[in-house]
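Sat 14:20. Reprocessing the chain from the morning session after the first attempt stalled halfway. Input below, unchanged.
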Amino acid sequence: MGWKSMDTAPRDGTEVLLRVEMCAGIPGKCLVGHYMPGGHCIEDHPAIDSGWYFWNGIMFDKEARPTHWMNVEDNRPLVYLACPYSHPDRTVRVMRFEAANRAASMLMDRGEHVFSPISHTHSIAESCDLPLDWEFWQDFERSYLSVANRLFLLLIPGWSTSTGVTAEIAIANKMDILITYLSPEEAGVIQ
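Finished this time. Tokens:
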């Protein structure tokens, strides 16, 4: 965990977070990149120099020399717990809230740094009369997904038809976040 010296950085194409001396004239920036050996990577394309490349394939300029690296996951400290919530029946919403709390507790017991949006927002939404649908909460939840290294999907009834869960899965896939399915039994959720 944390920044490591460049002499220990992987040179197998693995994407890592790089701290660079300067990027676009700004010192001390961080970029996602990978090391590529020199030579021909694609037929009929000119040979490339070996070195560190941005994720989009543009080589670092001389001023952007990487000084340290870390695994991308080390910079995404949270795991995100997804489960269905919205339902016209308040009793169902409360049951889903309690299931999310039990699953979050189990993950915390395992040492995970969990963000459970349902655990966090249910009481706020109810006491402040906020909307309960995905449309209202999506930007909030997307920001937490952006710092998560894994999405745990709690497979309680309603997960496969939930608008929010469907969107969270799509966002996780787009952000290359690992998705792990969590059964109610494994999470200690009583149904």
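The first helix runs from residue 90 to 109.
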